[in-house]
Amino acid sequence: MKVALFVPCYVDQFYPHVAIATLELLEKLGVEVVYPEAQTCCGQPMANSGFEHLTHGCNDNFVRNFSGYDYIVSPSGSCVLHVKDHLHATDENAATNIRGRVYELVEFLTDILNVQNLPATFEHKVGLHQSCHGQRGLGISQMSELVAPPFSKTERLLHMVKGLELIRLNRTDECCGFGGTFCVAEEAVSVKMGIDRVADHVAHDASYITGNDMSCLMHLEGIIRRQKRAVKVVHIAEILNSVK
Amino acid sequence: MTEHKTYDHAALADKFNQDIPRVDWHDKTLWFIREKRDKAVWQLPEWEDLRETASQIKNNVLDNLHDYLLEFEKQAQQNGVTVHWAANAEEHNRIVHSIIAKHGVTDIVKSKSMLTEECHLNEYLHEKGITVVDTDLGERIVQLAGEPPSHIVLPCIHWKKEEIGELFHQHLGTPKGNADPQFLTAAAREHLRQRFLTSRVAITGVNFAVAETGEIVVCTNEGNADLGVQLADVHIACMGIEKIIPQRKHLGVFLRLLARSATGQPTTTYSSHFRKPRPGQTMHIVLVDNGRSERLQQESFRNALKCIRCGACMNTCPVYRRSGGHSYQYAIAGPIGSILAPSLDMKNHADLPFASTLCGSCSNVCPVKINIHEQLYQWRQVLVKEGYVSQAKKAGIYGMAAVLSRPGVYKTAGAVGRWFMKYIPVIVNNKLNPWYKQREMPAVPKQSFNEWYNKNRKQHGKQG
Prior knowledge:
The complex is a heterodimer. Chain A is of the alpha/beta class. Chain A has helices at residues 9-14, 16-28, 44-48, 56-66, 77-86, 92-99, 105-112, 132-137, 153-158, 182-185, 187-203, 214-226, 236-240, and strands at residues 2-5, 32-34, 71-74, 102-104, 125-129, 165-166, 208-211, 232-235. In chain A, the strands form two sheets. In chain A, strands 2-1-3-4 form a four-stranded parallel beta sheet, sandwiched between helices. In chain A, strands 6-5-7-8 form a four-stranded parallel beta sheet. Chain A starts with a strand and ends with a helix. Helix content of chain B is 51%, strand content 10%. Chain B is built from 22 helices and ten strands. In chain B, α9 crosses α10 (181-198). Chain B is globular and about 90 Å long. At the A-B interface, α1, α2, α3, α4 and α8 of A face α1, α2, α17, α18 and α19 of B.
């Protein structure tokens, strides 16, 4: 099985350790991972701002980089959802093929690798921030709005981590307010949403806030650092890859 | 439409957020209703099936709207009801006024109708010298305050009881400082009763119009629609043409969904069926298009017409809860308003599809399964293509697209950007950067993943 590692642009630039953790974790699980080096971005920042018609260059570049692999895996539910829903390219057959092969890290671990145990240890109280695009878009966990049986692929993996204590939240799946360009275009509401999310985790004594999307965590981290709170953010790949 | 610049949800939301305790209170109040809704819907194991059934009934209605409307008209006429057709808000207002004028009446009562809000009927009638008293308690409160409703089901949800006490003190003469909800409700009831008793014309909205029977169904918790209609000589019911359902039995689906979604009640206190005028009374139904036919032809946006106005999407929306209904500047606020408003007036409401994080909670609570968040995304594409976006934003996105479509440029730009952030942080850490106003920028790593990979792993990977 040959897997291409899709590293979102902001992870590449600001959170290389998240991409490194993803790479190491996949390799630890016996996957042959390739990193196509000329990748840039999935095009979501443009498309969500209403400029989907300007994403052709990005899309063609994406297709050039990610064709010919068994799977494409990324530590970001939001970018993966965007590719699944909106990737179209000059070579439409190749784009269609990619849309069917792209996976967010957690769903790849549970749905494709069928991971049953992990050699990970993370001895902390952890709150899980469910990023909307992974949860409601990719169906990584059940949504609180629906009358349907609960499940969570992310929590299932976190339960395999030795020493990790998962805290409960008052609002299990409320949006953090990042929202791409929303975070600057609607600064006041975006920040207020983030402050409220952080407060929910802090009220339940979380030492770390984790999630499947670094973009949400980047927003929450910005607030945490400004407010000088003790709680930290950590991407789920880092937890699943951590050893004592 | 009047020419003025696009409203600015972000600016009004920013203003709303100047009073954080109030934002917290507003958020918690509406979240409480979302939780009530959750409890109510979990009592029905068939909830998701009900949603799907309702969605399919409404899809059928939209596919056959022409036929159902004619069937409804025929049945209603046979019941002795006068049916009017209005192409737009102006015609609707004119028709309603002409009926009132014909009866020589100057004071009327009106129960809740979002359509009349959409058409600005109250203002129109006011200019014609007619006084309209809104009889829904929440609507009466905002009417006394000179405001539009901030929520379609809970019009005065942004008012605290102490403020309502003060408002009633000023307008209804209640004792100053009395904010007891029961007392204030009694005072409002007494005040409204005089209006009910003297009003010869009553306007109501319509929740459902049954094609099979020609009857309309009006749902209220206060019984104010019934009281108005039963005491008046003339009943005028105003409805958008999408309110049709094919058969009476379909109410068994919609009435179960509506109140549970709206407030968490099993059903509204009153679900009143009006089929024919009682002896001596006249009954009018005004069927209003006002852009609906046009929307029906837009494949991406047509199913917004399935909306039954329950307000669940507002209660669950994290943006609505923290920006307040008035920040939307449209009769229908929140996620559903944000997809309805631009199809009526794209220029003025171009801000609304961007007032969302696209989290998708709205689509999940919607009892008729409108894909609200997907339509918000689609509206953004339309608005940009139509030119309703600022030049600064346009330039920024063009620049972003140019960099991200060229791997070499992207790598250089990333490295240069990180260098500046690291060594001259004031470039981003300043008050012109909206991110930095209340958030720290991410710490700058010494190398990108790409650079790390080149140094550490290149021999194992595919050569770029």
